[in-house]
Hints:
lyase, Pyridoxal-P_BS, Serine decarboxylase, Aspartate Aminotransferase, domain 2, alpha/beta, decarboxylase, 7-stranded mixed beta sheet, 4-stranded antiparallel beta sheet
Amino acid sequence: MVGALESDQILAMAEKFEILSDDFDPTAVVTEPLPPSLTNGTGADHGEENPRKTVVTNGGGDREMVLGRNVHTTSLAVTEPESNDEFTGDKEAYMASVLARYRKTLVERTKYHLGYPYNLDFDYGALGQLQHFSINNLGDPFIESNYGVHSRPFEVGVLDWFARLWEIERDDYWGYITNCGTEGNLHGILVGREMFPDGILYASSESHYSVFKAARMYRMECEKVDTLISGEIDCEDFRKKLLANKDKPAILNVNIGTTVKGAVDDLDLVIKTLEECGFSHDRFYIHCDGALFGLMMPFVKRAPKVTFNKPIGSVSVSGHKFVGCPMPCGVQITRMEHIKVLSNNVEYLASRDATIMGSRNGHAPLFLWYTLNRKGYKGFQKEVQKCLRNAHYLKDRLREAGISAMLNELSSTVVFERPKDEEFVRRWQLACQGDIAHVVVMPSVTIEKLDHFLKDLVEHRSVWYEDGSQPPCLAKDVGTNNCICPTHK
C-alpha cells in the first residue's frame, strides 16, 4: 500500500516524473516541429503557417493533411520502474494519476462528439467480470479448436441474429465477427476476387477508402464509378463502364450508406443494370458495405431491403457504430457456397481458416450478444426512428439559421458547410471533406447536444463572416435545392 509521502519523497518524485497539471490532456494533438515536408512546388517554407499544408502524392497531385494543420500526437513515455518502486509505490501513483486524467479527458471529449458514427450510449458493467480472461476466437467460429478459452457460442448467436435480419437460412450462410468494418470489406471483396480472379472491381467514388485499399492489396483492376449529387452510385456511368468491359466478370461494392453523405446505393437498380448489360448471376458478385446503415435500414419503413433473397454475395456492418461497443468490431455474412474458395484446414488449430485475421477478439461477441439481447428488434427500431427524427431536426434548424444543409432519405448524416475555424472542427470532432462537413446523428446524440452545437456554430459563424465575406456555394456538393448561398437563396 502507498502511505502518506514525506516532503522529500514528493521532491524525489518530481525529479523522476513531470508533474501533470490539472488541465493535462493525454489525447491532445500538439503542434511540434516535424521534419520538412515535400511541397507542391510553391516554395512555401516548412515553418510558414498554412492551414492547408500540402504534400506531393505518388501520383504527383496534391493532398491535404487530414486535420488541416502541421501537427502530430504527443507521446506518453514508457519508462522503467525504479528498483525500489515496489516499496515506494511511486510508479503506481504516477500511472494512476495519468489514467485518472485520461478518463477525465474521455468524459469531456465524449460531450463534443458529433462527426463520426459511433454510438457512445452503452453500459457493459455486467461484463466486467469477464475482462480477466484472454478470450480468443481464432479460426472458424462454427468449428471448435484446441484453444478452449473462446466465446464461439456467443459469436454464432450474434451471426444467427444478423442472418435472420438479412434473410438467409442458417445452413446457407457463413460469417464471423471481424475486428472492424474495414475487415468486413476486405473479406467480402476477397471472396469476390477468389470467385472471379479476372473480375473487375466496381465501386463508386464515394465508397469507403477501405474498398480501394482492397483493390491495391489484392492487385485488382478497379473502375471508379461516378456518383449523383446525393452521393449514391450513378448507374448510367456504371452501365457505360460495364459495357466497356463485358468480357470480364463484375465484382461490385454497393454502399449502404456512404462515408460522407450517408447515401444509399440503389441495390435493385444496380442488379437491373448488371442484368441489362448481359451479366448473368454467375458472372457477378456483389458485396454490400453496410458499415452503419446496414443495421438501420431494416428498421426504416418503406426502405428498400438488403436481403440475401436478392443476388448478393455478402454484407458487412460495424458493431461499434449503431450497436455501440467499447472496442471496434464488425459482422461479415456471406453465402456458404462462396466461402469454400477461401477455406483451408489448419492442423495446428484443429480448425478451418477462412477469416482475414488469425487471432480474433473474443470479447467483442460478448458485447454484441449482450446488447442484441437487451434491445432486440423493437429496441433498435425505436433508436433508428429517434436518429432519423433528430437528424431532420438538425437539418431544419441549420437551414433556418441560413446554413446550407442536406439530409439524404434513409440517412441520419446531415451535411452542411465546413466551418472556417479548424479549432471549431476539432472541438466538435467534425468529419470534413472539401467545403462540407457532417454530423452523424447516433442514438447517443440528443436534442440538447444538437442545440448546444447549433448555438455554438451560429455564434462562431457570425464572427467568421462579420467582414462581409460570404460562405462558399455548396451547389456542387449538396445540389442547388439544398444550397442557400446568395446565388441560390
